[in-house]
What does this fold into?
Amino acid sequence: MAAVETTRPAPYGAITTFRAINAVTNVFGALAAWNDARVTRNSLNKLSDRELDDIGLCRGDIEFIGR
It folds into this structure.
């Protein structure tokens, strides 16, 4: 019975390119998450105390929501 090798090594620089693209993707993902949290905090800060109480929050909770 013969065994055939079906795997090939990755082309030169392929893994480095993959890691670089993955790092850039992670940076953009982190920036998007940070911006979403910032927008949420700003929107909640615009609400009155009564409106915050209606949704079960207080002013001190706003900073922890974005984290």
Remarks:
- The mean pLDDT is 89.
- The two ends are 59 Å apart (CA to CA).
- DSSP finds three helices and no strands in the chain.
